[in-house]
């Protein structure tokens, strides 16, 4: 029996397990039911005071973690829940003995202000450089967890220990493209023959005061606080920014032949990957959209697909005025007249923007779209934008046969990543 190869002679990369946690719920089934029903997970922030804040809403996972915890700790907890679901569904290996590599997207890890204040109070007038003072204060406070997270960014290390993955755990952070970037690293490792399996995770638990302030200073966040569920309005004319959110998505990737040999159920194929950098501005995209256009075309080329093969676009669709217009313009440049009838929708209208987790969560939702033949809607679409004349699947899910999805992820700092996700080959 011959080996299964793609159009470039590379191993085909299959998905055999997936898991997700978002503001809509825990688990793929609960999330998918809420997503296709057009429900919103956005609500008022209750974990910390928001007095005098311009934005007081977010997509937090309060139903699981109602109390405020440090961002790295919450990111690890969310990642573990999503990965446990994915590994369990895949049926690969024994518990705690994953037979492959770990690629993980995590938010930038730093010491948050409450911990900094504690550290400063614990220095007792210590002299020396900042590094020495931090070590002394940690020892006095007896808080090794905070020290470890801050110094090493060890979320991936802890996840690797828990699941027993092989080799050095890879932790990466490429802004809002991180989840898709992690998937690409997993795909590339399998294609190269470095591993037959990869556990890929995107996680983010960084909804905290500092994050809200920073994004507010960039004028990136929605300030539609009066009606939280209607605040995220991708592609609408009255969109006013994105809504921060928490969550995690996980995929088990395998060499297609190895997965079939062990009798695994194939959920789909990661057929094409692409990433292009944009050095125009820290937060703004090149006005002509060239890097995004190039990323979309590269994903199609990498997957050996034509524009006619794509049945649905899972948009980045943040709800910021500039991003949505740029994404629409770029898609029209690639797909031409086809974009007038090609469904495109944004999951962020319901779950908010999960930042480093977004690409992985949306890959899970893209697979569910293929498996169910249901395209999730873009909710809160009440005021169409004449400059974006696209079929955004407004407000209500749609039954559409889908065999290939283009999933876009674009991040601050010029990170543009695209995934081409497809049904199992016949």
> How large a portion of the residues is in β-strands, by DSSP E?
15-25%
Number of strands: 15
Number of discrete helical segments: 13
Low-confidence stretches are none
- Any idea what the shape is? globular
CATH class of the largest domain: Alpha Beta
Pfam families: ketoacyl-synt, Ketoacyl-synt_C
GO molecular function, one term: 3-oxoacyl-[acyl-carrier-protein] synthase activity
Enzyme class: transferase
EC number: 2.3.1.179
Explain what you see.
- This protein is an alpha/beta fold and 426 residues long.
- It has two domains: 13-109 and 153-419, Peroxisomal Thiolase, Chain A, domain 1, CATH 3.40.47; 114-151, no CATH class.
- It contains 13 helices and 15 strands.
- It has helices spanning 28-36, 71-90, 113-121, 130-141, 144-152, 155-163, 178-192, 209-217, 256-261, 290-302, 321-335, 348-351, 358-372; strands at 13-22, 25-26, 43-44, 57-58, 101-105, 170-172, 197-204, 247-255, 268-277, 312-314, 344-345, 374-375, 398-399, 404-411, 415-422.
- Strands 1, 2, 5, 6, 7, 8, 9, 10, 11, 14 and 15 form an eleven-stranded mixed β-sheet that branches.
- 55% of the residues are buried.
- Its EC number is 2.3.1.179.
- This is 3-oxoacyl-[acyl-carrier-protein] synthase II.
């Amino acid at each position: 029996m011959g080996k299964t190869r793609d159009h470039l002679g590379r191993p085909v990369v299959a998905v055999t397990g997936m898991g997700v946690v978002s503001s809509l719920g825990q688990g793929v089934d609960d999330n998918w039911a809420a997503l296709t029903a057009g429900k919103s997970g956005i609500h008022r922030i209750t974990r910390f005071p928001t007095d005098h804040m311009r934005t007081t809403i977010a997509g937090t996972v309060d139903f699981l973690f109602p109390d405020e915890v440090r961002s790295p700790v919450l990111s690890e907890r969310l990642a573990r829940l999503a990965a446990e679901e994915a590994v369990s569904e895949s049926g690969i290996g024994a518990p705690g003995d994953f037979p492959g590599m770990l690629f993980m997207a995590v938010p930038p890890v730093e010491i948050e202000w409450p911990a900094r204040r504690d550290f400063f109070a614990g220095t007792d007038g210590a002299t020396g450089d900042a590094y020495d003072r931090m070590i002394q204060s940690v020892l006095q406070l007896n808080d090794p967890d905070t020290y470890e997270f801050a110094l090493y960014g060890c979320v991936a290390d802890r996840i690797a220990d828990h699941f027993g993955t092989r080799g050095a755990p890879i932790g990466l952070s490429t802004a809002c493209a991180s989840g898709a970037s992690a998937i690409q690293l997993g795909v590339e490792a399998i294609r190269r023959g470095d591993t037959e399996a990869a556990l890929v995770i995107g996680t983010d638990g960084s909804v905290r005061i500092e994050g809200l302030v920073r994004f507010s200073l960039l004028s990136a966040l929605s300030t539609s606080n009066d009606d939280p569920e209607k605040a995220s309005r991708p592609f609408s004319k009255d969109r006013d920014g994105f809504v921060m959110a928490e969550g995690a998505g996980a995929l088990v990737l395998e060499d297609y032949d190895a997965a079939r040999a062990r009798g695994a159920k194939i959920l789909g194929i990661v057929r094409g990957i692409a990433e292009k950098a944009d050095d125009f501005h820290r937060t703004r995209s090149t006005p002509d959209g060239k890097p995004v256009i190039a990323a979309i075309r590269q994903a199609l080329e990498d997957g050996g697909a034509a524009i006619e093969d794509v049945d649905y676009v899972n948009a980045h669709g943040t709800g910021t005025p500039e991003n949505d217009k740029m994404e629409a313009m770029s898609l029209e440049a690639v797909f031409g007249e086809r974009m007038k009838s090609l469904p495109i929708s944004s999951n962020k209208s319901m779950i908010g923007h999960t930042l480093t987790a977004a690409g992985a969560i949306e890959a899970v939702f893209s697979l569910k779209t293929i498996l169910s033949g249901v395209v999730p809607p873009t909710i809160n679409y009440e005021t169409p934008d004449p400059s974006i004349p696209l079929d955004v699947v407004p407000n209500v899910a749609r039954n559409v046969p889908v065999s290939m999805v283009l999933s876009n992820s674009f991040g601050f700092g010029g990170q543009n990543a695209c995934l081409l996700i497809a049904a199992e080959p016949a």
